[in-house]
Amino acid sequence: MANCYLCGIKLIKNKNKSKDHVPPDCIFPVKKPLNLITVPCCIKCNGKFKELDEKMRNHFAILAGDKSQGLGKKSTRELFRNNKKMDEFISNTKLHTSLKDKNGHPGLLYFFDEDEINLWLIRLVKGIYFKKDKTRLENVEFSVKQHPDIKPPSCESFHVEEGLEYCPYFVYKMFTDDKNKNLAHWIFMFYGHLIFQVTVNN
């Protein structure tokens, strides 16, 4: 009998059993890859992420612009139809002194809500780990870093173990820390534009 990869509850068909896509299938265009990662999940946990999945997709795609291959325009239209969502996006966009234009003026940088982006990215790590090892990732510590100042390489030249089949929407790599074998670092790149790092301390 399968268990939910997030909460660990036993899954029962026609009662609480569902499956989760990792990453969420909404970050891909209409023509989605055929080999998306799926993991066993309870209906309750799966439902918790529906709104956050769409929010991350919209914000990622808007920030990536043309690199999102059309999803940015769709996400922008969706935000314009909802004043609350638009106001939230604008309020999280602030001047950043380390990013300057050719005239030396500070650039604008979007700051993700830390609780939301941490929850969302840790869920991806847990899902991919479960798919690989068939066990839940628990009793570990997570730390998340955003890298808005890094200009990502093209996904074709991004040295990854897996994920190129989802390029440019999602590629990833996991590697063990050379100095501390208890640390595993997960690097995620979205739309060839946004890079995040999740460190797992076992």
Strand and helix layout:
Blueprint: E1 17-21, E2 38-42, H1 43-48, H2 50-64, H3 71-80, H4 83-91, E3 93-100, E4 106-110, H5 114-133, E5 141-146, E6 170-176, E7 183-190, E8 194-201
Antiparallel strand pairs: 1-2, 3-4, 5-8, 6-7, 7-8
Q: Helices and strands: which structural class?
A: alpha+beta
State the share of residues found in helices, binned by percent: 25-40%
The chain-level mean pLDDT equals 88
Output the strand order for the largest sheet.
5-8-7-6
What is the makeup of the main sheet?
Answer: 4 strands, antiparallel
Overview of this protein structure:
By secondary structure, the chain is of the alpha+beta class. 30% of the residues lie in helices and 26% in strands. The chain contains five helices and eight strands; from the N terminus they run E-E-H-H-H-H-E-E-H-E-E-E-E. It is globular and about 60 Å long.
What labels would you give this structure?
202 residues, alpha+beta, four-stranded antiparallel beta sheet, two-stranded antiparallel ribbon
